[in-house]
Design goal:
The protein has 250 residues and is an alpha/beta fold. It has eleven helices and six strands. The protein has a six-stranded parallel beta sheet with strand order 3-2-1-4-5-6. Helix 3 runs antiparallel to helix 4. The structure holds xylulose-1,5-bisphosphate and magnesium ion. The site of magnesium ion (MG) has 7 residues, from loops.
Length: 250
């Protein structure tokens, strides 16, 4: 079956954004004088919780606090996350987060071949717009036919909901699309939605379980669109009777 769309995760896949997210979380914590600092080691662990708001809430849940103080801090999560999103945007708009190797080339090749591009991400629309604009310029947003993200679905990755939303909006069955991911959560989400998935891990996600991946690569490097489709949709061997029938009916 033909490949009509490539569906990309954003964080870790289009760009290695997690250090910028981590710095932005810490800046928000500092602004609110909370005295919390997420180190790189902490943050690798914290990435087990998908979604920034959920990540902050799960961190608060583990702090040794009284019930009233815990409630106060949990009520602060939306404001903390809004501030974090603003700080993240500042880093990205400053050009601080480049696309990963091979990403821009593969996006362009896919579009040239008439393949649609889509996004299925846990992060907010504001963060995606900022990253696409900073890395690809004003045409960045227009390159993507569908952007499914953030709180548009109730259950975030590893639930398949965000990939199902992207497929529904594209109007395609999973057999006509491929997913590109960087994390075990993302792979689970895409696979559960029925998608063949290429995984390109980063420092933050490299210890994940990627056994369900269709293909595991360090990055997109020189992988061409045609080659990707050949790997994902290998031509089935033709039996002698099929060959004979094809010949006589040609
Ligand atoms: C990436 C994430 C995101 C970002 C933070 O998940 O977990 O939560 O770290 O973004 P994925 P927000 O790449 O699997 O979509 O703070 O905007 O949620
Ligand atoms: Mg990711």
């Amino acid at each position: 079956m033909s490949v009509e769309a490539l569906i990309f995760d954003v964080d870790g896949t289009l760009a290695d954004t997690e250090e910028a997210h981590r710095i932005a979380f810490n800046s928000a914590f500092e602004q609110h004088r909370l005295g919390w600092t997420w180190t790189r080691t902490d943050y690798r662990q914290l990435l087990e919780v998908p979604g920034g708001k959920e990540r902050i809430a799960s961190y608060i849940a583990l702090l040794p606090l009284g019930a009233a103080e815990r409630q106060r801090l949990l009520a602060l999560v939306p404001q903390l996350h809004a501030d974090k999103t603003r700080f993240y945007g500042e880093v990205v708009n400053d050009g601080g987060v480049p696309l990963r190797d091979g990403v821009e080339r593969l996006l362009n090749e896919a579009l040239e071949q008439g393949c649609h591009l889509a996004i299925a991400s846990t992060t907010t629309a504001a963060n995606i717009h900022a990253l696409l604009n900073a890395t690809l310029g004003p045409r960045g947003l227009d390159m993507f036919a569908v952007i499914a993200c953030g709180d548009q679905v109730r259950a975030k990755k590893p639930a398949p909901d965000i990939y199902r939303l992207a497929l529904d909006t594209l109007g395609l069955p999973p057999e006509q699309a491929l997913a590109v991911e960087d994390s075990a959560h993302g792979l689970r989400a895409a696979t559960a939605a029925g998608l063949w998935t290429l995984v390109t891990p980063t420092f933050w996600t490299q210890d994940g379980d990627f056994r369900a991946a269709g293909l595991l690569l360090p990055d997109l490097g020189e992988l061409g669109f045609d080659e990707l489709v050949r790997i994902a949709r290998p031509a089935r061997p033709v039996s002698p009777v099929q060959a004979l029938y094809r010949e006589t009916t040609r």
